[in-house]
Specification:
The protein has 201 residues and is mostly helical. The chain has helices spanning 12-21, 35-48, 63-78, 88-103, 122-146, 153-158, 163-171, 193-196; strands spanning 151-152, 175-179, 182-185. A three-stranded antiparallel beta sheet has the order 1-3-2. InterPro entries: AbiEi_N.
């Protein structure tokens, strides 16, 4: 087990979120009515897709739990720009947890993924930042596509998604090209949290 997977080495906010995913509820979240349901729903959804959520008393944190931290951190950065409709069940669950954390004043670091040690090479931090930024752009693109029958490249550009990125989303199976300049969301796949990480959309 790598040292980065020891729970005590994660920062306090990451440990709070891990506790919530494992069925606990931290002091800061007890006054927020939706908190327990939001994290319980996300954990259930992750487990149905094959993700492993460790027991509440485990001193370790798993790869799937770290992946969920990264996705919630990316969802927090979407802020008020995040569309509330058409984002898919997984995206909605992540945004719901991100909103609950914002209401409690808890912000996850963008560098939640990877080794997790406190002293990491700058190159690793940059890669994690780019990954989280890509997650946010992909979420915007998919939210737009799912809220319409078809969307044009101009509509994607209006929400900050370039033509090249739309093309990449098509190659990775997230979008389907209907005709030149027009795209629609591909059917939701059964990829789990961990497998989805490697699709660099």
């Amino acid at each position: 087990m790598k040292s980065g997977h020891i729970l005590a080495r994660r920062n306090v906010h990451e440990r709070q979120v891990i506790a919530c995913l494992r069925g606990g509820l931290t002091f800061e979240l007890r006054d927020i009515p939706d908190a327990k349901d939001a994290f319980s729903n996300l954990a259930d959804m992750a487990q149905r897709r094959g993700a492993v959520i460790f027991a509440r008393e485990s001193p370790f944190v798993g790869d799937a739990e770290i992946e969920i931290l990264t996705r919630i951190a990316a969802a927090q950065r979407l802020g008020r720009r995040a569309p509330s409709h058409g984002g898919g069940m997984e995206c909605d669950a992540l945004l719901r947890c991100a909103t609950v954390l914002r209401e409690a004043g808890i912000w996850l670091p963008l560098a939640a993924s990877a080794g997790g040690s406190r002293r990491q090479p700058e190159r690793g931090a940059l890669a994690r930042h780019r990954f989280a930024k890509g997650e946010a752009v992909r979420a915007r693109a998919l939210s737009l596509a799912r809220s319409r029958q078809v969307a044009s490249t101009e509509e994607f550009a209006a929400v900050g998604v370039s033509r090249q990125y739309v093309s990449q989303l098509c190659k990775n199976g997230y979008l389907e090209r209907v005709r030149y300049g027009w795209y629609r969301a591909a059917p939701v796949s059964d990829r789990g949290f961990a497998a989805d990480r490697y699709a660099r959309a």
